[in-house]
């Protein structure tokens, strides 16, 4: 097996990159693979070794620029340059793997070039789409056409900049085939799928404490959302869903919102019946999923959608948009629905009203998730490294 030095954008935070990275490290430890993880964290220059697994955790400085509630970019991370280089020289990796253009990604790419080590890069976040949508503070004051043009211009420019960075790699990974084809076209590099797995022992229907999924437990129907409460996740659609369901005569519906972010105040003000659980982890999160009846995931920007797979493993069907990665997880009409924004209320109403369909989807959702495993995901990644390694 190749010796892998892994530089993840985030590790301890609550997001898809961090979730995947923690499972990647666990996979390497489980199989005793030679693996070095260089990451940002709360400890100052902490080094650990367990078998073949090595970890170098570096604290970000107080001058870091906040990117999200629990994410930052450290402009002074260069102070660790010598420390990282010495550890790489000791470890002698065959490949360096980065997850994006963060300070960790920039260091990984730099040392791959300096030390002559093949670089692999995985695409986890559509940062270009985030850039466009986060202009809302400005574009909301503009007429619709100029606002849309400005957002599109920023999104296009950001995409070109990020794909130019990804051209530094010899091999790429992405969560779905559609994104792989786009990256291959833009970078000229081979791209392999790096999907997501799910812990089906943790996320399971057996953790449910409510009724059988059709509101029969006496507490109505629970529509769930899990993820960042941010503009790029399109969470404002939840408000529209609630209002249109009420107009359609669908009663007894309430939301359970898991996560935090800048749009939480808006949702608290606009949703009539909603419980805000904050950030949940482990068994508490697994129970929250299992107690939902339908996962409502309106994001147009997710490259995969870990939360969708976790919901399916919990026996919870999902309603997702036709953009990004979640549409590749949900089997239309079997484990949920793929819908346009304006179709969300009708799709959810159908599930709420058709109890037989809801029960069937719960069963099929669980069956689908049982076929997904983290070991299979990372075995494919190691196979993809072969394209980056020099031929003997």
Name the CATH class of the largest domain. Alpha Beta
Give the total of domains. 2
CATH topology category name of the largest domain: Rossmann fold
What is the count of helical runs?
15
What is the straight-line distance between the termini? 15 Å
Largest sheet: 8 strands, mixed
Give the structural class. alpha/beta
**Main sheet: strand order:** 3-4-2-1-7-8-9-10
- Rounded Rg: 22 Å
List keywords for this structure.
single chain, 392 residues, alpha/beta, Rossmann fold, 2 domains, 8-stranded mixed beta sheet, 6-stranded parallel beta sheet, 15 helices, 41% helix
Task: Give a verbal description of the structure.
The chain is α/β, with parallel strands linked by helices. Strand 7, helix 3 and strand 8 form a beta-alpha-beta unit. Helix content is 41%, strand content 18%. The two termini are 15 Å apart. The radius of gyration is 22 Å and the shape is globular. It has 2 domains: 206 residues, 3-Layer(aba) Sandwich (Rossmann fold); 166 residues, Rossmann fold (3-Layer(aba) Sandwich). Helix 8 packs across helix 13 and helix 11 packs across helix 14. The protein is built from 15 helices and 16 strands. The protein has an 8-stranded mixed sheet with strand order 3-4-2-1-7-8-9-10, sandwiched between helices. It has a 6-stranded parallel sheet with strand order 13-12-11-14-15-16, sandwiched between helices. Strands 5-6 form a two-stranded antiparallel sheet.
